[in-house]
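Supplementary Note 3. Input sequence used for the single-chain structure prediction.
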Amino acid sequence: MPRPQDDPRALRSRAAALAAATQLLVEGGPERVTHAAVAERAGIGRATVYRHWPDVQSLLLDTLAADARPLLRLGDGPIREELITDLQRQIEWFNQPVSASVTAAVIERAARDEGVRRIRGEMFGRSDEHFVARLTAAVDRGELRPGIEENARELVCHIIGPLLFQRFMLGVRLDIDMAVRTVDVALAPWMPDA
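The predicted structure, written as discrete structure tokens, is reproduced below.
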């Protein structure tokens, strides 16, 4: 007999509920994500939503986690190209309505909610060790000057910060070409000939 989490009907109802919760989050913020609203939007029973999420907090956490995107997932190639490629992916996500809703909810709730702090860590913090390893490899290949590894967090702020500010504070729709300019400005002090 299949376990409830493996039942195709349960998987479909869960996916429909998360999609509905995301729509509600985008339309009206976290306050709109309730069992009743999700059930109505998804076209499923309220009891089904409660079976997946016994409380609103767990429903909201799963909604945020499903739509949160970790920053700076870099491959092993040249650092400049890897940063530009990843930043272009981030720009595409930042331009989606859900990104503003998720980012705002995570920022606002992380100060008082451990579950949301974990999501924030997934989005913004988990990449630290990976990013430092990529920077160290770039230094070893001669792409960047030594010392950048100790300034990894500052570099992330110089790369991601301007885009977050322009998109979410100024409401600017980001252009993919901004990735090249942003990365080049952030890396300029660390280039071998700087």
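The two ends are 65 Å apart (CA to CA). The chain is about 70% helix and 0% strand.
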